[in-house]
Amino acid sequence: MKPSLYAAGSSLLALLFCAPASAQLYGGFSFGESYLEDVQTGTSSLLPQFDLFEVFGAAANDSERLLWLVGPDPLSSASGSLFGWSYGDTNGPTEIGPIVTDAGASYRWDALTYDSINDKLYLALAFPPFGAPSTARGIWELDPNTLVATQALSISTSGVSASISGLGFNRADGLIYAPDDVGLQIVAIDIAAGTITPVAGSGYISGSADVDGCTVGNNKVYLVDDDPTFPPQVFNLGTGTYEAPHNINASSATSTSAAAWLASSLDPGTVYCTGAANSTGVGGDIEADGSRFIGDSDMTLRASSLPQNAFGFFLVSDTQGFTANPGGSQGDLCLGGSIGRFVGAGQIKSSGSTGSFSLEIDLSNLPGPSGSVSAMPGETWNFQAWHRDSVGGSAVSNFTGAVGVPLL
Fold first, then answer.
1. Which of 4, 378, 61, 27 is nearest to 218 (CA)?
2. Residue 362 burial (CB count, 10 A)
3. What b/e sequence results for 27-51 when a residue is b if at least 16 CB atoms lie within 10 Å of its CB, and e otherwise?
4. pLDDT tens series, the chain, 408 aa
């Protein structure tokens, strides 16, 4: 599994998310209408495939272009089900099945988030039903294959009195962030340590007291209020301060109760140079998947159409170029300027039986001839892969094509 912003409400639900494109978009979903809104231009477009769909929580898996949703079980409003929606699908979400705990209990779940580092889904239970133990309040890990939820952290044993109805995973630090309607602040949840810690300076903005949705994107926490007149609030984890709120131009009032961040997918960047034919008879391909937002720390390079079991590594530069057959290579180098090589521990790859390899990269720590370099918003960085090959029994080398990625 693998994330911009999604929100849904209790009576008239809304879904708020940033769509898989270069622009940042919010998506609003309610019983009456659903829409995408570009927060930079304020323009909106309707999404009828989400009409009449009730959502309690959502989480995005960008690598599979899938939005996970948790909502009421169609057969029982007192329990919850997992749903899935593929990006761009003209049909509505599809039910995967009802969720049960490892003890066989069914709950109406309040939030959902996706840990894209450890490939895990997490649910939040803020209000256990009558008769359920108070220890049930907390964070649960959900297996999307078995639909069994296992408690990962109990609020009652965390030492903090918190009411959590939204979750957002942050790739930048590996923590989950959530609104706490008891303390009226944002809290950081460390599943491994079993702790819930208030975030300094994150007290709710005046007038907000019922935050029902939360998500994290570009190292910022987005809070979605139940009050449809209260715009989503944005807390910058880097500066420890709130930014100007984002307004949603819905044509009808909608109360919101969930949020999810969909990374601005690369689709798959701009390939500006094609690879020369290798021993397979075709040129090697390259693509960059994930997010253009540096703060998301979510980009993966993939090289394919390579000879089987060939070793290789990725190259990077902020300058495009062209050098034919460098060092006697069968291919062309399409990078210029200062060129870095991803040859650190675990970064030299084998194409294996699939003729492909991939590498997750850190845009704040790119290799360079004189040391690591941090990419900056507004820059375009270019990537290419070098690999070994064999022609007529002789060892040679080649390059894939090259892709340029403008960063935000």
1. 4
2. 13
3. bbbbbebbbbbbbeeeebeebeebe
4. 333 333 333 322 233 333 333 334 444 444 444 555 444 455 555 556 666 567 778 888 766 778 888 877 666 666 789 988 876 677 778 889 999 999 999 998 888 999 988 889 999 988 777 667 878 889 999 999 999 999 999 887 676 777 888 899 988 889 999 998 888 999 999 999 999 999 999 998 877 777 877 888 778 888 877 766 677 788 999 899 998 766 555 444 455 566 777 655 444 578 899 999 999 999 999 988 877 777 767 788 999 999 999 999 999 999 999 999 998 999 999 999 999 999 999 999 999 999 999 999 988 899 999 889 999 888 899 999 999 998 888 899 999 999 998 887
Task: Give the C-alpha distances (Å, rounded to integers) separating 213 from 169, 278, 347.
Answer: 13, 50, 38
Q: What is the pTM of this model?
A: 0.66
Task: State both tokens at 371.
Answer: 């040391």
Domains of the chain: 5-243 (2.120.10.30), 270-406 (2.60.40)
* Type of residue numbered 21: A
